[in-house]
Design goal:
The complex is a heterodimer of chains A (284) and B (316). In chain A, 77% of the residues lie in helices and 0% in strands. Chain A is mainly alpha-helical and 284 residues long. Chain A has two domains: 41 residues; 238 residues, MetI-like fold (Orthogonal Bundle). In chain A, helix 3 packs parallel to helix 6 and helix 8 runs antiparallel to helix 11. The N and C termini of chain A lie far apart (48 Å). With 316 residues, chain B is of the alpha/beta class. Helices cover 41% and strands 21% of the residues of chain B. In chain B, strands 1, 2, 3, 4, 5, 6, 7, 8, 9, 10 and 11 form an eleven-stranded mixed sheet that branches. Chain B is elongated. The chains are: A mainly alpha (284), B alpha/beta (316). At the A-B interface, loops of A face helix 3, strand 2 and helix 9 of B. Chain B: Involved in the system for phosphate transport across the cytoplasmic membrane.
């Protein structure tokens, strides 16, 4: 065997190893989804969506938890989206490169790595106690907004960085002001990337349990929130609660609720992919 | 149209009042409204949830919300006056009593049900028929770590095989309670056992290992009775297995514990809280059984109701 053959063999081996690595995650994911589907799919029907929680597994539903999750999702978007995007634009376009901006940058990256339960403790002290919002939907959304802000900021900056300088230069050459350039050129060109980041951040928020348990989100609420000041429960808490019950029926309920939660995140990821493709085409 | 709805409503209310004879003594005939905030132990949660669910048909306008911050977390909120009722799987601690005093919170402690701890082995285990407290202590105490590793170290006639231990995670109240009752000090045990916060994992572990030994809440055994063997514990006079009867009459000692709710004095000024707690005490027995716990004897429920009544009167 000469050198060339040896190298080709190495190449082949690495290729197979790479395929194995790629499949590893996928196989486990499919195994997990399959297992959940077998356990939970027959439990899902309309009444499962519209019923209140109950001590009897077969009478229980996810109505209040689902409505709580939807409320949290909408409010978190309303709070985190403008703040995150504005901060991203500022850092990328306005801030002067210096020690301060370097410090800001490091801290934002650090924030993205802080365990979510720490945000819960922060939310409990600041929003629930000091601002006396109580364990309300608003307090929960503010806490989760803090949690996903770093992700949105980083995504916004990356998306803006990816906008070709030629577009900016052309805009300035035509006499547009900085604001006009950002509003009419940079934002539209980067919105695909920004939206992808935002939606991925929100799919993370919808699966969070720990910070919401810490701020005092409830395990049993007999009503869906009707104002941002109402108390609430969310799907992950309902799932967590059901999994710790001895009766087998609750395990099925948990599996069924996991399917609904997975559906929500899949749909959101789907929307993210759709937007990315759409905007990319536009750019070309 | 409106009239029809009204008639149907009246009929429904009349029906539901008629059906719930057991609770009619506790409920006001008037309709109440308001919110009642409950937080605390996740062990007590299923009982309170069941009561809240039934209470919904009784007083649909009273909104009962329940959190699961844990017994300690629940008392923290309770001592700040943030909740009306606290679920607890152990009595309130001195430090928590202090916190309540600082904020001028007085309260009443009410027992609502019993929870039994079951000691279990694999069904293929033919040699164990019972344990004494001393034997359990010998197996689980901190000094046993790395030393008591084989079945024949407990009783010489048992096999010369490794013993595999399973138990709830150290953060759970069940673990606290077991160590307190067996080892004598809450939270103190050997560390080399398979611990899981998910009791289903413990069930799987014991069911799949011939030389296993473990403990967890009785409700998990009841749901998995075909996969596990329940072992009786010597209470000083005789060997007793945990059942509805032995836990309820107190002969299954020391591995059964009462579950509590705590109600604060400002809350009992609201009629809906008083009505809810009365409804709770009147129905807890039946509902506790529904969710896998064990009802108190009837006379103890009666005593709780009386205690609560005096507490309400003294805080009027």
């Amino acid at each position: 065997m000469n050198n060339i053959q040896k190298n080709r063999l190495k190449d082949q081996i690495f290729k197979i190893w790479g395929i194995g690595c790629t499949l590893f995650g996928l196989v486990i994911l499919f195994f997990f989804i399959g297992d959940i589907l077998i356990d939970g799919i027959q439990r899902i029907d309309w009444s499962f969506i519209t019923d209140l929680p109950s001590r009897k597994a077969e009478k229980s539903g996810i109505y209040t938890a689902l409505m709580g999750s939807i409320w949290i999702l909408c409010l978190t978007t309303v709070i985190a989206l403008p703040i995150g995007i504005a901060a991203g634009i500022y850092l990328e376009e306005y801030s002067k490169k210096g020690k301060l901006s370097a410090l800001l940058e490091i801290n934002i990256s650090n924030l993205a790595g802080v365990p979510s339960i720490i945000y819960g403790l922060l939310g409990l002290e600041v929003f629930v106690r000091i601002m006396s919002l109580g364990a309300s939907v608003l307090a929960g959304s503010l806490t989760l907004s803090l949690l996903i802000l770093p992700i949105i900021i980083v995504a916004t900056r990356e998306a803006i960085k990816a906008v070709p300088t030629s577009i900016k230069d052309a805009s300035y050459a035509l006499g547009a002001s900085k604001w006009q350039t950002i509003w009419y050129q940079i934002l539209p060109a980067s919105s695909g990337g920004i939206l992808t980041g935002v939606i991925l951040a929100l799919s993370r928020a919808v699966g969070e349990t720990a910070p919401l348990i810490v701020i005092g989100a409830l395990a049993y609420v007999p009503f869906a929130p009707s104002t941002p000041m109402d108390e609430f429960s969310v799907l992950p808490i309902q799932i967590f609660n059901w999994i710790s019950r001895p009766q087998h029926g609750f395990i099925e309920n948990a599996a069924a609720a996991i399917i609904i939660l997975l559906l929500i995140t899949f749909v959101m990821n789907g929307i993210a992919v759709y937007f990315r493709n759409k905007w990319q085409k536009k750019l070309k | 149209m409106k009239k029809q709805i009204l008639i149907i409503l009246v009929a429904v209310i009349a029906l539901s009042c008629g059906e719930n004879k057991k609770s009619s003594e506790s409920s006001n005939s008037e309709m109440l409204s308001g919110t009642i905030q409950v937080d605390g132990s996740s062990t007590v949660f299923p009982v309170t949830e069941a009561v809240a669910e039934e209470y919904r048909t009784e007083q649909p306008d009273v909104k009962v919300t329940i959190g699961v911050s844990g017994t300690g977390g629940g008392f923290k909120k309770f001592s700040r006056g943030e909740t009306n009722i606290s679920n607890a799987s152990r009595p309130i601690k001195d430090i928590e009593i202090e916190a309540c005093k600082e904020n001028n919170i007085t309260y009443v402690e009410l027992e609502v049900a019993y929870d039994g701890l079951a000691v279990l082995v694999n069904p293929e285990n033919t040699w164990v028929d019972s344990f004494t407290i001393e034997e359990l202590k010998k197996i689980w105490e901190p000094a046993a770590q790395g030393k008591i590793m084989k079945w024949n170290q407990i009783r010489p006639e048992w096999p010369n095989e490794e013993i595999h231990l399973f138990g709830p995670g150290v953060a759970s109240g069940t673990y606290d309670y077991f160590t307190e009752a067996i080892v004598g000090k809450s939270g103190s045990s050997r560390g080399d056992f398979t611990a899981s916060e998910d009791d289903h994992v413990l069930v799987q572990g014991i069911a799949g290992d011939k030389y296993s030994l473990g403990f967890f809440g009785l409700a998990y055994y009841t749901e998995n009775a075909d996969k596990l063997t329940l072992i009786g514990v010597h209470n000083g006079t005789e060997v007793v297995k945990p059942t509805l009867e032995t836990v309820s009459n107190g002969t299954y000692k020391p591995l059964s514990r009462p579950l509590f709710i705590y109600v604060n004095s400002t809350s009992v000024k609201s009629p809906e809280v008083v009505d809810f707690v009365n409804f709770y005490l009147n129905n807890a027995g039946e509902l506790a059984e529904d969710v896998g716990y064990i009802p108190l004897p009837a006379d103890i429920y009666k005593k709780q109701i009386e205690n609560f009544k005096t507490f309400v009167e003294s805080n009027k």
